[in-house]
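Listing S7. Sequence submitted for prediction.
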Amino acid sequence: MRSILITVVALASASIATAQPLPRADWGAPLVNVSQSAGVWTVAGRKQTVTLVAADLALTVKAGGVTWSMVPSHDGDLKLKAGGDEFATRLASAGRIAIAPYDSGAETGVKITLDHWKHGDATVDAPLYLTLALEGADEELVFGIAADETHGAAIRQLDWPQALDARDVDYTVLNHFRGILLPRHWPAAYNPIRGDAGHPNDTSEIQSDVVECWSQSWWGFEKGPAAMMLIVETPDDAAYQWSHPAGGPTVIGPRWRAQLGKLGYPRGGRMVFFDRGNYVDLAKRYRAYAIATGLWVPLTEKIARSPKVASLVGTIESRVSVLRNIVPASRLYDKTDPARNHQMTPFAERARQVRDLKASGLPRLNFVLTGWPRRGYDRQHPDVLPVAPEPGGYEGMRQLADACRAAGYLFTLHDQYRDYYVDAPSFNPEFAVHEEDSAGLPTLFPGTRFGSVKEGPISYLTAWDGGKQTALNARFMLGHLEKNYAGIFAHGIKPDGSYLDVFGYVPPDQDFNPEHPTTRTEAKRAIANVFRWARANLGTVGTEAGCDWTVPYTDYSSSLGPGKAGIPVPLFSLVYHDAVLTPYSPGGGEARMNRDDRPNWLYGMLNGGFPRTSLEQIPRQAGVLEQMTALHRRVALLELTNHEFLDADHTQERSTFADGTTVTVDWKTKTVQVSPAPK
């Protein structure tokens, strides 16, 4: 009996012990405490303390010894559509605001539920669910957004979390083009996507995946020795609030755009805080994110999949035309000298130039052929066949390809599948991208920058050589690519690669056509399939400019200068140098946003890039080309590990690569020093 009693007591004790909750630290939960007092919620971790004011949703983060404050909710931070009527309101004006603790087990913080929006005499139901929580040992502040749009109302635009109060920020770190630091007191008003003197009426919008304002999905801030960044983890339908008046400060915060008219799916991101850090630390944190999410694919892996990619290393790129034939309707048409609108060089002449370059001792070249479609450059896409008869047709192209192959050069075709010309044989408005409705100005990128107009729900422009065009729905691009290359292959021509224009510069388009509605996410997948086909069936893949979403699928991009404002910093290279190759122009004229104070070839040396120039310039630029290709052969496959300024006025700077190679540029003397020196 005694033994039975002892056993029962032991089992009961074991049961009680088992019922005791495990300490949070034992199962990896964040050591975070959530509390509320007088309408102020506090999320307190070991490193960060977050406060949220219920009345106006003002958010503050104390990280180490630095406080980062977001502005309170304001008019227009939420746009809704109900009953065909679109209106703006204020998040903090919701008729229902409920805040409660939130704990997923991996992140701990608060959940905010907002609903009952006033619009005139009506109350609109569109519940919003917002979460703020600390996650992980570094206590990054993760945020999430979801909406219930089943009550007849849709979220059209949402600005949350609010923009940082940047009045005491020293620099805003921006992924405009390849990266800039924008000082708080930058003297000129600045808009990353509008404001060029040549396009004063531009209505294009800041949005994700436009290289001008979003080459990577993050931005950051430096304040004294500290820094913080915001990573947008759902970038496909994102943007940001923006303002920088003359003299500053800079205002930037997340903006969530509608997907086919509504929020549609959960959105989110994270804020990362550094007690001590700068733009290099921010870029390296994003590099870790890119590696974890598959955005970063190393060049070594791309070479393993397609060995031709190795031939791009240390190679000069030249874009070479055989036919340009601008139509009178194009804004580029030269009315003062009409003869300039038609320029033709026979394939045979280009083949002779290739043989001459090889005879002169040029070892490597990526010959990118433009103007080969039937009517010439930027004409009748996507129906480009037969190959332009005027410079020599299929036979001429085949002989040029053979000349490149005999010389050991890459032969690449410049190609295009977004621009959809109305005189293309297959043109049908059914397959063009449709805007949401026929009212208002064009919103399809680039807005009204080049004079776009709407005809019904379709936006048209006459900006390029071929005249009137719109945009092709991405779902139909791959079929056109396959039919075009089938025709080329049938004539014994096998290019080594395709340079697919536009995709890395222009955002994927959503299409409201009910016969084939397409989200931006679906458009990305369709374009990725175009890239994949080119890699599998040709070898190398290039694109224009290159945002980070294109990095997994491409091997190189086109030239880009340092941007329109601020202090250039190599943010893109700090993340992706060993994942995608970027060219720079010794002549400067080919590089967008080239600046007189920063010759593009020196910018290229600093970034460890390869040169892009014309065939005619190769002999004249031999010295510079050799410097660039020699450095590229050394560092192309290496991480750019550090960048630093060596003086207070940012005229001397240095890059460091993973093998210890340093490149020091002096912008005053326009000189560069590589250490150790090339042998």
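Caption to Listing S7: primary sequence and predicted structure tokens for the chain studied. The longest strand covers residues 107-115. Confidence is low (pLDDT under 50) at residues 4-14.
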